[in-house]
Queue: 2 jobs
Job 1
Amino acid sequence: MNIFDMTIHELHTALKGKQVSSVEATAAMLQRIESVEPQVGSFITVTPENALAAARAADQQIARGECHLLTGIPMAVKDIFLTEGVLTTCGSRILNNFIPPYSAASWEKLQDRGAVLLGKLNQDEFAMGSSNESSAYGTTRNPWNLAHIPGGSSGGSAAAVAARQAIATLGTDTGGSIRQPASHCGCVGLKPTYGRVSRYGVIAYASSLDQVGPLTRDVSDCAVMLEAIAGHDPKDSTSVDTPVPNYSANLKSGVKGLKIGLPKEYFIDGLDTDVQMAMDAAIETYRRLGAEFVDISLPHTDYAVATYYLIATAEASSNLARYDGVRFGHRAEADGLLDMYTKSRSEGFGVEVKRRIMLGTYALSSGYYDAYYVKAQKVRTLIMNDFISAFADVDVMLTPVAPTPAFKIGEKINDPLQMYLSDIFTIPVNLAGTCAMSLPAGFSASGLPIGLQLIGKPFGEETILRAGYAFEQATEWHTRKATI
Ligand code: GLN
């Protein structure tokens, strides 16, 4: 078996058994990156020297008998995560020279367990997008079909797993950015509950929605990654001080008697037929495994996209005010301070980011604040309440991740509204602050992956992982590999 085809648990067994060293595994991954990167474009920065140095350190750790599940495993993280001493652009020209002085807490936790960083992954600029087309560093391509988008904004994180350029990756999810690319690239992606994982050192997009999470080949890997990154961090005031369960330990308890809700608003007429068929088959599989289905309703679903685009843009307009060319990032040649601000931001930000800053500034402006921002906050509460009431009757919900499989590069780039609407099934979860996972559930007639979404109660990651594991054991979708 090729090293680059392995899961975390497979490579861990090989490392622990000394069949392979971390240096060999890392070198194999670097070679794999070199051979497929010209076609896929998952990375913004590859860090071979740092990776090999970290792998040498991991090998010493293993030689001392300290082999954690993640020790010596080559990974990569979205370029939104600060990485000490390594260029961090967030997909933007405005950060094309930014070398952070410290690392994101989530990446640091993986590193403390001996994980090896291969490099930084491509993404939509400031995580704003669903296709990776807004990156200032080129569009990542879907490894299953290079004419298609990998999804976004963590498109590089999903494509790198699907193209076997990294064993696992980290992404962020504000409105679907882990789950939608995972679905489009045929990998597992989990957005934890708001507060479950520290966002310290993660570049902020919309702070009341952003969460960090893993993208992996299978559910067991996802559980291991989440276990490592979850937990309270005094440096992130929104992180919650509640114990981290041993997610891996409970994977195998099955789904007998599990109550799965099917929200009627998510099974709409316009749903792509291949997606609908995959959902029907998944429901059948769960029935066979002993789960019970309950029809439920999330009545405010129709307002979710509009609500999200008011709240997310409002928060983004405030968060992105810090990019002014003064202390870090791109600084334009200019006449005086105001001119410097204007030119640095005009040159540094791309069209989508500018559009969102303008939308957000408008929603927050005096005279419109109550009509737009405050109203959106009220609707957000209604959406949250929808989830609270529905979860009184069910343990998890099953829905599609996206209404269609990955669309073609260029197909929606000139129609932002169409692009925004493609996030209809993922956005409500962020507004409600709860957790959800995408897992491989089939393929379209043209061979593109289709993902299934399991939505859990707040801090119910254990249940969705267990349900995901049961599905994975009963199907073989996750074992298929893009022929790249
Ligand atoms: N596609 C959504 C947006 O553009 C979600 C992005 C995300 O989750 N970061 O905002």
Job 2
Amino acid sequence: MREMTEVERKVALSNAISIIRRNLPEYTYECQDANSIDGLYKPINNIEWTTGFWPGEIWLAYLETDDELFAHVAGIFTESFRDRIIRKVAVDHHDMGFLYTPSCVAAWKIKKDAHAREAALMAADQLISRFQEKGQFIQAWGTMGARDNYRYIIDCLLNLPLLYWASEETGDAKYRDIALRHTQTCCANSFRSDWSCYHTFFMDPETGEPVRGETCQGYKADSSWARGQAWAVYGLALAYRHTGNEKYLEMFEPVSKYFMDKLPEDMIPYWDLIFTSGEEPRDSSSAAIVACGFLEAADSYEKRGEYEKARHYRSLAKQLMKALWDKCAVNKDDASCNGLLRHGTYSKKSPYNTCTPAGVDECVSWGDYYWMEALVRLGGGWKSWW
Ligand code: GLY
């Protein structure tokens, strides 16, 4: 497969920044919805698990352009996120990292905005309040302790960097400790012998013992939801960086291979990896997430002096990016769409899953964000906020 060239990367990045700039007036005091409808995102209040991605895109645009307009708008979102966590609006779930890392941790790292730091630390406190001693995991959704929600989900690996950051920032090890314990539980249970992963995993509320894997957004319990596998790829690469535990890098390799082996010829994943050909919808966002995971791991391999592996994963990332550029990237002159990446799938109903259908073959906010992150990462020198 061909790799994205540096010229293509620059064109793609400038194209993405133009779309982000064009969207600023509509999404300054309102957030971008989780997915587009017929190619267009509608504005919403700051209530979804996904609203951190849009400010994350704006911060990335700021880093690329030094245009203070981007920093100004992203700063308005910092206040919105601070208000949300102070008033505890729709924060009864584990997605504090997705919400507060690309918005407030980014704002703190880039602008030393004290309100952003305060908000992100409150979000970290909220996240650890969902830790279950019995089973050693962060409960994803629902009433704490309820048997029908006594589970974690693979996506949570991306919420944990907020906790590593909170420990570094405060000197208090309790956040990191919970992140480590959750990661251990996740790695012990969520992967099958072929290195595909379960989307969600139930634990026993009385004994804390592992019970069973289930799906919510995947096709069925024992298939591999493409985005779940993608969260696992990036999550393991991040777990290695934050812990230095080689086991996570060792797991990263076969988990990544499983994802790559299931891709169709054009490299845009189907929404569940059980599908490898045919007319099922794709999920381009999974490819963008995996590209970021590969670039993250490549940096780690380079630091370890494993240059061949670093080259290998960087090349795979560029191949995914080339496929996304050719097949999914939105052209800045296309007024019919206000996202960056088409052909994402949020939640597709199957006869066996429990999701509420949403955003099938649409732009999805995290797909746009990780596409942008990968474009910036590929240019080199990006200081991660994850
Ligand atoms: N974290 C939920 C999703 O990826 O759809």
